[in-house]
Each structure stands twice: as structure tokens, then as C-alpha cells.
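Weekly modeling sync, notes
Attendees: S.R. (lead), two postdocs, one rotation student

Agenda item 3: backlog of single-chain predictions. S.R. asked that every request posted to the team notebook include the full sequence so nobody has to chase files. The rotation student volunteered to paste the first one in as an example of the format we agreed on. Action items at the bottom.

Example entry:
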Amino acid sequence: MAWRKMTVARFEEIKRLILEGQKDRSIARALKCGRKKVAQVRRGEVKDPALPVVIAGPIWAEQVNWAEVVTELGLGHPLKFIWEEKAQKLTTYSNFWKQFYRKHPELIDAAVTLREFAPGERCEVDYAGKGIEWIDLKTGEVHEAPVFIGILGFSQLLFAWASDDMKSRNWLSAHRRMFEAFKGVPSVTVPDCLKQGVIKCHLYDPDLNPSYTELAAFYHTAIVPARPAHPKDKALAEGGVRIVMRYFRWLYRRHTFTGVTEINRALAEAVAKINTRPHSKFKTSRLERYEKVEREKLKPLPDIGFESVEWKTAKLHADCYVSVEGAYYTAPHIHRGKRLRVKLTEAHVEIFLGLERIAIHARDRHRYGKRITNPDHLPPNSKAYHEATPQNLLSQSRFISPDLHTLVNELFNEDTLGNIRRVQGFIRTCVKEINETSTEGAHLRIKSAITKMRAFQKFRVAYFQEILKHLRTQAAQTKEREITRLPNNPMLRYRAESPISRPSQPNQNTGEIKP
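Predicted structure, as returned to the notebook:
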């Protein structure tokens, strides 16, 4: 019985036998097919089955430039956006994509498995593979701003935020902004295994970044990282990145950005359009689905905002400083050479040895190598060196004596660096004089010694010490020794306070009795 379907193998065999000079009857008898079919192949009326079948399609399809559609799709633009621009007035989107895939079946995506989540159960986050470029108008330099994407599992509400870099502080800040935009916290947050969130990957028990752990504890959400090289574990985030970035680049493909703030404004507009547009699956917008069902299922936000915290490890060097983000901070000198943990908050830098906080400083953000010093952290010799500054010495002299402060000010006006050690000697001598003797007497001797140095114009530490020593000796010699007498001592004679006085005797000349 003659076969009816022309296959590629039979077509090629007929062509081969025709080229060898065989007749139609013999070819039909050998291949068990009709002579009419062989004759059609000989005349070229039957085309090669290996060639793709071109479907003309409906009339509206002739008005679409399908080559441009393939080009735009190859640039990463979604097919729906292309339909909105090129064929929305001609036909519906379903007819458009069906006709497109009939013409190009090789572009059909593979089948996927649908996942469903309960309201408020899951949120997936990720960074876009390629950021958004912007130009610095002052320098002309081109920068790239990474884009953070977050999506809720049930309503698939989207969030996007761009930052200067992908460092830990921006990673944590993006989560805080996302939870505030969602007006609640999901039970589970699924990130990728990037270093800002996961220190060491593990299939069952990964090691999370301490800062990320603090954020999870603050918002009462569980961090469940996706497995490395398994993008389907966070397929929602992968799809959300694709939706947001394709739509954003489509809307602003002819726009040049000049700052991250401008990019965030544009991202907010693009995400708002996506969230308010009807979803092809839900038949309602993501925002409506979120407002009606998922919003009330999310955990409430804490009363106070989360303060971004970063943890770093630094070694305390021999100069008692640790280097953190372009600045230097002191820690107690007894821990020199040890590895310390540094906690960075918005306003402070805290240094820990194990679980014990050993230092805290105000955070410096200038990044030009400024040294923030606490003198109590330094050893005695370093402390003395750092205290040997004109400002510090002037402050010390002010609290010791006004005359000494005036003298120090005059010496510094004459030669600041040349008189620093001399002023140190004056201050140390005065402090010793006050501590070893009475305060009032020491101030009088200091004033007299300074007056004498001014009289002779001889401002030397040794001379100042000699003057004070001489004044102390002179005061000790001239000081009268006070004798304390008991008021009721009967053994004392001629004492007015004594109850026993000498007997009255008459005056030999006048006869007057005197006591």
C-alpha cells in the first residue's frame, strides 16, 4: 500500500534516485509510493519537509514587522511591551503571541512548575544582574547603581531601590525600606547566598552575617537563603528582577540619568505602574490583591526603625588604633595585636573583644584618615605625648593659676613649639607644689615666683623650682609656733584664764594693793 506522508528520508531518497537516472515507475515500485508523487518531486511541486513551514496568518499579521519583533525580543525587552508599541491597535495580546510563536517555535520557553504561597508567608529578594548606569556631571565619570528587588509571594507586590554600592549597610537599608513599603514583615525572607547576607553556604544550616541576623531578629522574620546555583529556589525574585528591569529599561531607554536619587524616582514610577496594572494570572492588579488579602497577614512593623549595623574584624596595631572605613579609632593598649570585632552603627563605632565592649567612639565619615583618640586607651608614654599640645597645656594652666595661664600664653605667642617642654615643666612643678602643700599657700608662692621671674626676665624651670623652694623655707622659718595651754591647769602662773591667781600684795610706796 502506498504511503501518504512525505518524510525527509523518503524525499531525499527520491531525489537521489532521480539524480541517478531512474524512471518514475521503478522509483515508485522500489519505495512503494505513487508515480504521481514521484513526478511531483521531479517537477519541484513537492517541497522538502525539512524546510520550515511559513504560515501566512491573518491579515493583521501582514502589517507587523516580525523581524523587528525578534530583534527587540533579543535585546531583552518583554514581548508584551513590544505588542503594546507595535500591534496593540491591530489585535489582542493573546493573538499576537500565538501568531509570533507559530512563526518562531524555537523561541518557546520550557514548561515551569507553579508554586503557591499563603498570604504573608514569603518574600524573596535579590540584586539585579546588571545595574543602572548614571553619569556624574562634575567629572563625566560613568557609574553603575545596583538595584535591589523584593517581591511578596502571594500578591507578588514588587519593590525596587537603587543604591551607590552593594555593601552591607545598603543591603540592610534596602530591607528596611522594603518592609516599610510593604507596611509589614513576612514570615520568611529568601535571599541569595551573597556575602552581605550569608558568610558560609550550607545546604541545611548556613552561617548568616551577624548584621543580617540582627535585622532578622529585629523584624521577627526567618532568613532562609536559597541554595547556591539554584535560581529556582527564588524564582519569584528572578522573575521580579526580569519584569522590573525590562520594563524600566523600556520606559527609559532614551533617558540618561545623572544621580541615584533620580534613578530611584524613576524606579518608583515604573514599579507603581507594574503593581497597579492587571495581572495576567490574577485578573486583578498586584496592589489590589495585596490590599485585600495579604496586607493584614503580614507581621506588624516595630515601633522604632531599625538602625543599620555592620560588623567587621580588625587588628589592634601597635599604635593602639584599628582602621575602619578610612578612619582610625583607639582601643585599650593592653589588647594590642589582638583581632577585635568592630560594630558600625549610623552614629557610633563600638569595638568588642569577644562579647565585651572595650571602646566606643563617634563615627567619622570623612574617609581621609582622621584619628579619633581616647587618651585613656593609650599607654602612659603615648598619653603624655598626645597631651603635649598647646591647647591642652593652656587648658591645664588655666585651672592651676591665672598668673601661670598668662605666662604660658605669652610664651606660646613668642615661640609655641620651642616653649612646649618648658611649659610642661612649669605645670608639673606647680601641680607638685599644690599636692605637697596647702592649696592657698601654694598659689601665693606660685604667684610670687612668677613675679620674680618677670622681674629678672629669666623664665627657666630650674630657676622657678629654686624660687619655690626658697619661699617654702622662708615661710617655715618665719612661721610662729602656737602654744596651746589648758584653761584649767593650776600649775600655770600669771594666767588670766586660770581660776587660781597669785595673791594681792600692797604697793610699798603708795600702799595700793595690786593684783
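Discussion: group reviewed the output briefly. DSSP finds 17 helices and 18 strands in the chain.
Action items: rotation student to repeat for the remaining queue; S.R. to check formatting next week.
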